[in-house]
Specification:
- The protein is of the alpha/beta class and 361 residues long.
- It folds into two domains: 5-91, 3-Layer(aba) Sandwich (Udp-n-acetylmuramoylalanyl-d-glutamate--2,6- Diaminopimelate Ligase, Chain: A, domain 1), CATH 3.40.1390; 100-329, Hexapeptide repeat proteins (UDP N-Acetylglucosamine Acyltransferase, domain 1, 3 Solenoid).
- It contains five helices and 38 strands.
- It has a twelve-stranded mixed beta sheet, with helices on one face. Strands 7-10-13-16-19-24-27-30-33-36 form a ten-stranded parallel beta sheet, with no helix packed on it.
- The longest helix has 21 residues, at 330-350.
- The relative contact order is 0.06.
Length: 361
């Protein structure tokens, strides 16, 4: 559509001020904005930068004096980041050619819904089903029997392995692999790892016998709900017997590893470099910040938050905010950290002096 301040404000559910007919080409940061750009200035912090740009219209914080900022029009956003979500959605209108590229390989038994786009060198296996409006980028692999719901956006290089089912409006970023085998092996006799786990590492000895690791194959596949996003080069392993599951609305960042048999609830956020080991269950609306590691066979309750870099080694109660390794309640972890910083000073006092660094807090 032809963009104007008024039309864009309506798309954002926000208020337009000034000349609503002013045409717009796109969005830009305030100092870099041209006359046809909407400058994005969602806090007073950006006010000075507006003067260095050439924008005639801006997306502003509530209460901003748009006239004093030298603007001809403005869109006021009560909740800035929500406005950003709607703004970027309105401006991201990439065209995908409908139909199958001549270099793609689509099995005759596959079902392609109306308006499907299959990119160069993509492969769609026997019996696979792609919902209406789904778009496959270049070199995507859809294995036999895979189901993708309507409106999916599958970026280049994604691999969908056997027994994968994905709901509507999924977004899979480049290089994501869904449904690879889980990392699951066993030896003929109990391995040192198993013994140590049961005895907390006390009194264990290396076992004898055949050390060969025997693969436990993954037959359960992966089930992903609607409106799920999976980041670039992230992996979700297939379950052993039952499926690994990801609930509706969950968003998974880049370079995230989800182990076999894991169950993730609805509307969760898993940030970059998160690793979740096998058979762990994660409730609804859980947030795992960047670099969080979660051990296997645990339960994390609804609405829990785990801060960046933490290691979860035990169950987490619903609504709990956890921090550190091993992860404990955030307030407890902060108290522990403060106590650790005081240790040099306290030890210096016990020794009858003060450390050279003063042992400051």
């Amino acid at each position: 559509m032809d963009l104007t301040v008024g039309r864009l404000a309506a798309a954002l559910g926000a208020e337009a001020l000034g000349d609503a007919s002013l045409p717009l080409r796109g969005a830009a940061e305030p100092a870099a904005a041209g006359p046809d750009d909407l400058a994005v200035a969602l806090s007073p912090h950006w006010a000075e930068a507006l003067g260095r740009g050439r924008a005639r219209a801006a997306l502003l914080w509530p209460g901003a004096d748009w006239r004093a900022l030298g603007l001809q029009a403005a869109i006021v956003a009560p909740r800035g980041r929500l406005a950003m979500a709607r703004l970027t959605q309105a401006l991201d209108q990439e065209e995908w050619p409908e139909g199958v590229h001549p270099s793609a390989v689509v099995d005759p038994s596959a079902h392609l819904g109306s308006g499907v786009s299959v990119g160069p060198l993509a492969v769609v296996g026997a019996g696979a089903r792609l919902g209406a409006g789904t778009r496959l980028g270049a070199q995507v692999t859809v294995s036999p029997g895979v189901v993708v719901g309507e409106g999916g956006l599958i970026h280049p290089g994604v691999r969908l392995q056997r027994r994968v089912t994905i709901g509507a409006r999924a977004i899979l970023q480049p290089g994501a692999v869904i449904g690879g085998d889980g990392f699951s092996f066993v030896t003929a006799e109990p391995a040192l790892l198993e013994t140590a786990r049961h005895t907390a590492g006390v009194g264990v000895e290396p076992p004898g016998g055949d050390p060969t690791w025997h693969r436990i194959h993954s037959l359960g596949g992966v089930e992903i709900g609607c409106d799920v996003e999976v980041g670039a080069n992230s992996t979700i392993d297939a379950g052993t017997i039952r499926a690994t599951r990801v609930g509706d609305g969950t968003k998974i960042d880049n370079l995230v590893q989800i182990g076999h048999n894991v169950v993730i609830g609805r509307h969760c956020l898993l940030c970059g470099h998160v690793g979740v080991a096998g058979s762990t269950r994660i409730g609804d609306r859980v947030v795992l910040a960047g670099g969080v590691g979660v051990a296997d066979n645990l339960a994390i309750g609804d609405d829990a938050v785990v801060t960046a870099g933490s290691g979860v080694l035990s169950n987490v109660a619903p609504g709990r905010v956890m921090m550190g390794t091993p992860a404990t309640r955030m307030d407890q972890q902060i108290a522990i950290y403060k106590a650790l910083r005081r240790l040099p000073r306290l030890l210096g006092r016990l020794a009858g002096g003060v450390p050279k660094d003063g042992g400051s807090d």
